[in-house]
Amino acid sequence: MSKKTMGIHHITAIVGHPQENVDFYAGVLGLRLVKQTVNFDDPGTYHLYFGDEGGKPGTIITFFPWTNAYQGKIGDGQVGVTSYVVPKGAMEFWEQRLEKFNIPFTKLERFGEEYLKFDDPHGLHLEIVEREDGEVNTWTFGGVTPDVAIKGFGGATLLSTQPNKTAELLEQVMGLELIGREGDFIRFRSTADIGNIIDLKLTTIGRGQVGVGTVHHIAWRAIDNQDQLDWQQYVAENGYGVTPVQDRNYFNAIYFREHGGILFEIATDPPGFAHDETQETMGEHLMLPEQYEPHREQIERVLIPIMVREID
């Protein structure tokens, strides 16, 4: 058996105050809050999902906001940088927008592409890059219109304790294509038109520490439940300890930690985010999994109220 993932399904990170998180990803970056729910293992913590208008795989960044938690350290065994892709010609808009909100940024070039690199309020490293590929995001919010809106992930930069082992996994197990090497990075590509570029740093920088401002895991796409079961078997056959299937309500998930220390998930594309609320109202209300619904009043007392609002 050999398999190929289409690319990134979602990326999940740990951040600080939930309203600051919403203000940045919805208010500044113009993404849609497509789901308010809770961490299934810790229902006193939000799990917030942001993406394009439809919440499609390859556009979703998710967060566990830990208010007053300790700051993490970005390093080996983590996603170091999350990249977003915007339409060609949109970079000037994003430079001006970051300046408007007093967000420092730098410009850099990698593999012939220009990137804007900046941090979110809690220390996550982000980038914006222009590409033709990917569907236009039709969501409009706070002055971010479809002609310049983030289409989804451009990809991610991985930091590994064993870069050679991670490279072997990406190419030989996950089925990504090695397409180039430049300086300290090698680049892989998957078959999707977004969430398809992975840059792997070839030198180590020191082990990361989980906390605010760090990525918890990166999730890869499985077409459906059967495809995921095939992945589960395939990953195990290649020597990785993989979990049983976990029902995450909006997708099913399996997890394994690759040899370079990065936590990988493989998540199903269906059922998506509109099965427990309408496409039009996604993200407006706190949605709880069945097992926590009887405890809604108690959970809502613990969670800090949030709102999506335009930022001046």
Q: How do the strands and helices of this protein lay out in sequence?
A:
Blueprint: E1 8-15, H1 18-28, E2 32-39, E3 42-51, E4 60-65, E5 78-86, H2 91-100, E6 105-110, E7 113-119, E8 125-130, E9 152-159, H3 163-173, E10 177-182, E11 185-189, E12 197-201, E13 214-222, H4 225-237, E14 246-247, E15 252-257, E16 263-268, H5 296-302
Parallel strand pairs: 1-4, 5-8, 9-12, 13-16
Antiparallel strand pairs: 1-13, 2-3, 3-4, 5-9, 6-7, 7-8, 10-11, 11-12, 14-15, 15-16
Number of distinct helices: 5
Residues in helices, as a percent range: 10-25%
Q: What is the makeup of the main sheet?
A: 8 strands, mixed
Task: Please state the structural category.
Answer: alpha+beta
Unreliable sequence segments: none
Give the CATH level 1 class. Alpha Beta
What is the H/E string? Answer: EHEEEEHEEEEHEEEEHEEEH
What value does the Rg take, in angstroms?
18 Å
- Overall structural domain count: 1
Mean pLDDT: 97
Q: How would you describe the shape?
A: globular
CATH topology: 2,3-Dihydroxybiphenyl 1,2-Dioxygenase, domain 1
Numbering strands along the chain, what is their spatial order in the largest sheet?
2-3-4-1-13-16-15-14
Assess the beta-strand content as a share of residues. 25-35%
The fourth-level CATH homologous superfamily is 2,3-Dihydroxybiphenyl 1,2-Dioxygenase, domain 1
The strand count comes to 16
Span of the ends, CA to CA = 53 Å
The CATH architecture: Roll
Explain the overall architecture:
This protein is α+β, with helices and mostly antiparallel strands and 312 residues long. It has a single domain, classed as Roll (2,3-Dihydroxybiphenyl 1,2-Dioxygenase, domain 1), CATH 3.10.180.10. Helices cover 17% and strands 34% of the residues. It contains five helices and 16 strands. The chain is globular, with a radius of gyration of 18 Å. The termini are far apart. The relative contact order is 0.22. The model has no long low-confidence stretch (mean pLDDT 97).
